[in-house]
Amino acid sequence: MTHHVEYNTSEKGLRTILTDWQEAALRIIWANPGGIDSWTVWVMVNEYLKPKTISRASIINFLEAMRDADILDGVEVTGKGGLRWIYTPAMNEREFKNFIISILISHLLRNFPNEIRLSMTKLNNILWEN
Q1: What is the phi/psi pair of residue 82, to 5°?
Q2: 19/39 Cα distance (integer angstroms)
Q3: Residues with Cβ < 8 Å from 103, sequence gap 6 or more?
Q4: CATH of the domain spanning 11-90, picked from 3.30.110.10, 2.60.370.10, 1.20.1250.10, 1.10.10.10
Q5: Alpha-carbon span 64 to 40, nearest angstrom
Q6: What is the C-alpha separation between 62 and 68, in angstroms, rounded?
Q7: How do residues 23-46 score in pLDDT, each as one tens digit?
């Protein structure tokens, strides 16, 4: 599966690849490893974003994209009002970061193979000098 990652060099941490509400949604799920539904994630994200809000559809679409990318797991359950998904982490934060790093480095190697190898060799030398 090909993964699309946009990297914003003007940001720091997870915000380099996620919006504020996407990061909040993932952190909520990581903090609830037993599972949480999209409604609860939506409520908690909007509480975090106040006074800004995000639509429930945006939350659902993001959670489904993360499930499709195997970053989240999910199980469909029957409850009041019909079927709903309960999301659990398939990756913890460290694993997620390593996953993103692998995607970025693989993309750089495909597009700039000689340049990235040279840069990685220089970086490796710097790291081992200290």
Answers
A1: 115, -155
A2: 19
A3: 3, 5
A4: 1.10.10.10
A5: 15
A6: 10
A7: 999 999 999 999 999 999 999 999
